[in-house]
């Protein structure tokens, strides 16, 4: 079974908790967003991140037109809507069990709680999303609606140990997850809602995975909010040149991160602007791209990318956390700078500088070898470091784009052509950046000729 989920929203976690209770395993795909309101906010702050692009490429709409998370795929059955997913799993894997007992009286009670829970969660989302995600002022009316629901639950739980009957059921599992979310908006159960507080403590103990998942959700939310704050408060300069492949690689990554308030400072390398004392004072190696982020000054495009990935906590899989996948990504990035870029430069610098078409035979042979290596990496996965788009794809896409400008024939490298098409499809701004570089290229060659 496949489950599309996200760790932060309680409904997704409810399904994971149920899966643990029923000993079920899923192929998990984390999806960052689905809610129109949340999507709009995330689009501004994170949704153009590498992962968001990737996830959008998964096209949840094709899987589940309701675009709700969690979404379960069980054979040819596709179920969206949290409660429907929970019911599906319980009916299929715990029929006659205790979570959803057959007795009509109990079931009706469970249904009542589930419908109530939908409304409670809706009230929570309506109030909390703008406050927590958009950091807007709290809406008193929405807050009161939420508190009214909570007061309803408080009355309902009077004298009850569990929500629907004399033992733990789906009703407790669902309600407990929604209630756990109140923490985020600092609504304390104690002392105002003693029945809810007592019941919550009790049912929480019946879900072994609850605390661990809640901890992970809190951590993910903290990271998300920290990233959001940094995104909105960021101010950085990037010195670049559109003809420079590493500059293009970085520009591509930035456009996918949505770091829009970057101030791009173009340096005319042929005019020697990079050698101006003011720039050399910033970067004694006088190369582009160079990043100035407050006190942090960095050059080497790949080092800049890793810095941004760390600072803005680019999520999986764009910046893998797993050491092996991270190492593979870094290996490709070192290959990019130490082998690929070098082979291209050695093969083409003479041609670019002199305008003569012939390439040194040894350099051309070396480049062919290196391109075959890259083709080989790409035969092992969809992207340069496995099956997911990572930072390494941005660095190598930037480097490889120079071959497009010099019209290097790549047709014999099947995988490279496939991957370049994939990059152009998945990386926001790829086409625009290439068009810009193509437009600048003849001017660059002309100025170069004049200079020589
Ligand atoms: N490995 C470096 C290469 C940087 C580099 O060589 N930049 C060139 C343009 S592609 C440059 O700025 N050249 C001007 C100079 O060094 O004076 C990176 O990835 O950032």
How many separate helices? 18
- Percent helix, as a range, is 55-70%
Distance between the termini: 64 Å
User: How many runs of DSSP E, i.e. beta strands?
Assistant: 8
Measured by DSSP, the beta-strand proportion falls in: 5-15%
The major sheet is characterized as: 4 strands, mixed
Structural class by secondary-structure content: alpha/beta
Show unreliable segments.
34-67
Shape: elongated
Compute the average pLDDT. 86
Bound molecules: glutathione
Strand order, sheet with most strands = 2-1-3-4
Radius of gyration: 27 Å
Order of helices and strands: EHEHHHEEHHHHHHEHEHEEHHHHHH
Organism: Culex pipiens pipiens
Subunit structure: Homodimer.
Keywords: Transferase
Pfam family, one: GST_N
Structure, described:
The protein is an alpha/beta fold and 452 residues long. Helices cover 60% and strands 7% of the residues. The protein has 18 helices and 8 strands. It has helices spanning 10-21, 36-45, 50-57, 60-63, 82-93, 104-133, 140-156, 170-180, 194-204, 210-233, 245-257, 277-282, 301-311, 323-354, 361-379, 391-405, 414-426, 430-451, and strands at residues 2-5, 27-30, 71-74, 77-79, 236-240, 262-266, 290-293, 296-299. The strands form 2 sheets. It has a 4-stranded mixed sheet with strand order 2-1-3-4, covered by helices on one side. Strands 6-5-7-8 form a 4-stranded mixed sheet, with helices on one face. α1 (10-21) packs parallel to α5 (82-93), α1 packs antiparallel against α10 and α6 (104-133) runs antiparallel to α7. It is elongated. The chain starts with a strand and ends with a helix. Mean pLDDT is 86; it is low at 34-67. The structure holds glutathione (GSH). Glutathione binds at residues 244-246, 269, 274, 286-289, 299-302, 337. InterPro entries: Glutathione-S-Trfase_C-like (IPR010987), Glutathione-S-Trfase_C_sf (IPR036282), Glutathione_S-Trfase (IPR040079), Glutathione_S-Trfase_N (IPR004045), GST_C (IPR004046), Thioredoxin-like_sf (IPR036249). It catalyses: RX + glutathione = an S-substituted glutathione + a halide anion + H(+). Homodimer. Belongs to the GST superfamily. Theta family. Its EC number is 2.5.1.18.
